[in-house]
Design goal:
homodimer; 461 residues; Aminopeptidase; Alpha-Beta Plaits; nine-stranded mixed beta sheet; four-stranded antiparallel beta sheet; 22% strand
Chain lengths: 461, 461
């Protein structure tokens, strides 16, 4: 394997041709949601497989019931190095509304912006540019001789933007081939344009719907008001009682498995000086809700939540109707962290609801899913190596971040293949992914490639 | 004026012809809701005016923008007797669904039932039979010589079943003619088939809709959950906090003007042995909600309430959506009693909501109406006289009852004409008003006529 400096020099020398390859990739309208573009998805898969072959990987295009997958493995020259699975996706969101694009979405271009050059086109940030940072890093290793520092399996799908319907079955059928020591995913953001980030926490999710049944029919509130139980009141009491006055969730045992952050992480997040007034201000709010006394990044990245996502009961049309409704229903979601048990929490929630029911009311429960949080341990060796590698490239410590939402493929890697995932990405919050005029910073692309070279190099040490 | 005994004897002698007149009246399909029956409404009005003329009342049919009114006054022979306004309505509900009628709705008949004869036909209980009890009582006075014991103004409308749209303007335009010492309304029920009732309490109603606005758009609960305020939670807390753990409403000053019932009434209601298990059991409930430690009749007749009649927020379709909604809304109704001030209560409620709002949320309020409760004083002389008169006819003390709902015309009489209303009716709970096979007990009709003769006689003493 060549020295890292040589590889980085190669990356610098290759930049123009790498950029050209990215533009060719973005030109392929691989829109997974629209059946009219199925052949374009296949074309993108074949293009990618050819790229992988050009860097010494015997990649193949694998059919599914939907759009094809690409799988290929490159073995490192040295033995006893880690085996990583790199995941990405070649499909893109539909470009609508087309009239808001300044130039056609599949005619990518380089634009000068205030803070530097940008590459513009549908899918350039999500996920084609990000995906190519990794492939170009591998190319530089390959072209400088001696092969890759780690064993690498590429696993690239074409249905991420439509919920990855073929992925679970594909993982199950190809587990032996896809199982590695860990997964790498390049589909996340940096903290800001100068500061890289490693995402190590994804919140889990429990989705529960409750229907409360009181009387067996809607009642007239003139006749029954004051005597018959109102299921909206019962439901409101349940919702109100789920949080205490400090914003903590009151379900017994709810915080089991929720650890406090390491001091170092708390300090790092505090030093980011993330302005809650900006975060909330841009959606018309100003005061953090949720648990009191906690930093807002902590709240959205590393603390569990309970929210009602929808509620319905009685008459909701125009004007008024003096009805005591027979039913009221609500959809609840719990975001989980650490090692909170989603099934236990769903069960505790159902017990909580039942304990709140008057004896002549009933509750029906519908589960809409339950998944645990995912977390790479703070003290993992891999994390330390990746942090150092990114710091070397960017001249700044990477932010160790959480993600309030979920990335389903990371859960599949954990639960189906027993692998942790290191999520490193070079997107920026203003990349307009899923929106018109999607862009990827040229600096993200260029330093992203260099970052991956450093990370792969570090993982093999 | 003839002696009461003579009048009662006349009523007995007239029963067959009275019944025949009622059947002729029910034959007229005076369906106010259906424009196709407008001429039938006019025919019913003219038929009634002719009936009134036949008992010495120079009644006239008065056009409105909708169906006509009938107004006429008979002066008593004696001076210094009270002047009463008798209100009723000649219009009926549509008879649908027609196929559930055992015989055609407008071909009334007498049927033998287990507990006695019944008159069957649309509108026979609501309100044609009830209305005719009063007219037939007046007829008996007229036919026995000497005229009526009181001055009586008849005021009969044809739009009660469609919300009385022409009534307020008609009252305003004819206030001088319609103003009397008190109003009599025969559109209510007996306690049971042996026990008459006088309704002296109608609950008032305040209708308020609240829309709570949090963020300026719907948010992703993965990104904002734990940091952004959820308006459904805010609303649930408001609803929960509106009642204390004893079922009392917590709005400051809410119970101002709510008096405890006289001991005598409490005792009477307790002795009625009204079974809450029957009342609630027939709608699938078993436990009285609302204020603890109070009898169920007290709760529905004489205590104020607060109910949410509808609630809506967030995603309420199938499955789940991890949204933090921007808005949540609910429709509230307050039933009022005694001298509770509806405007003050609406104002207090709005303040209560505002005090519950996080500083970055806003509330929009929509009023759907506010009306005070109506109550004839327990110690009114008129009430005592009517109680005695009914007890003489039925051999049982009448129940002094409340009505949980509202009867708008009674409010208009109070507020527009400054008159209290005595509500005496002979309907039974199982009369199937508004439903197929509506019936009126022959005993209700017959003893209803006799009852009014006694009441009119008593009021003049």
């Amino acid at each position: 394997m060549a020295a890292l400096d040589t590889v980085l020099a190669k990356i610098d020398a290759n930049l123009d041709s790498a950029l050209d390859r990215l533009l060719r990739f973005v030109e392929i309208p691989s829109i997974s949601a629209d059946p009219a573009y199925a052949s374009e998805c296949t074309r993108a898969a074949e293009w990618l497989a050819a790229e992988l072959r050009s860097i010494g990987c015997a990649a193949s295009v694998r059919p599914t019931k939907g759009h094809p997958m690409i799988v290929g493995t490159v073995r490192a020259a040295r033995p006893d190095v880690p085996h990583v699975l790199f995941y990405g996706h070649y499909d893109v969101q539909p470009p609508d509304p087309l009239d808001l694009w300044e130039t056609p979405p599949f005619e990518p271009r380089i634009a000068e912006a205030e803070k530097g050059k940008q590459i513009i086109g549908r899918g350039v940030a999500d996920d084609k540019g990000q995906l190519m940072t990794f492939i170009e890093a591998c190319r530089a290793f390959n072209e400088t001789g001696g092969g890759l520092p780690c064993n690498v399996t590429f696993f690239i799908e074409g249905e991420e933007e439509t919920g990855s319907p073929s992925l679970p079955a594909f993982l199950a059928a190809n587990a032996a081939e896809l199982k590695a020591d860990m997964a790498l995913v390049c589909d996340t953001n940096m903290w800001d344009r100068e500061t890289p980030a490693i995402t190590i926490m994804l919140r889990g999710l429990v989705l529960e719907e409750v229907v409360i049944q009181a009387a067996d029919r809607d009642l007239h509130s003139g006749i029954y008001g004051g005597a018959a139980v109102n299921p909206i009141h019962v439901l409101a009491r349940i919702i109100a009682d789920l949080h205490d006055e400090k914003g903590r969730i009151t379900l017994p045992g709810f915080y089991n498995g929720v650890a406090e952050l390491p001091e170092e992480i708390t300090r790092q997040w505090r030093e980011l000086r993330f302005r809650e007034s900006d975060f909330l201000g841009k959606v018309g709010l100003s005061i953090p809700a949720g648990e009191q006394g906690r930093d807002i990044l902590e709240l959205v990245w590393s603390r569990p939540t309970c929210d009602v996502n929808g509620i319905l009961g009685g008459y909701t049309g125009k004007g008024s109707k003096t009805v005591l409704p027979a039913q009221a229903s609500a959809k609840f979601s719990f975001r989980l962290v650490g090692s909170q048990d989603p099934y236990k929490i769903a069960e505790t929630f159902r017990s909580f609801v039942k304990e709140h029911l008057p004896a002549d009311c009933r509750a029906k429960f519908i589960s809409h899913g339950a998944s645990a949080a995912l977390q790479l341990p703070f003290n993992s060796a891999v994390l330390s190596l990746a942090r150092r590698a990114l710091a070397d490239e960017w001249g700044k410590e990477p932010v160790i971040s959480g993600c309030g939402g979920s990335i389903p493929v990371v859960g599949s890697f954990k639960h189906d293949l027993g692998m942790d995932t290191l999520m490193i990405g070079f997107g920026l919050e203003d990349d307009r992914i899923h929106s018109p005029n999607e862009k990827y910073e040229l600096s993200s692309f260029y330093k992203g490639i260099r970052s991956w070279a450093r990370v792969l190099n570090a993982l093999a040490l």
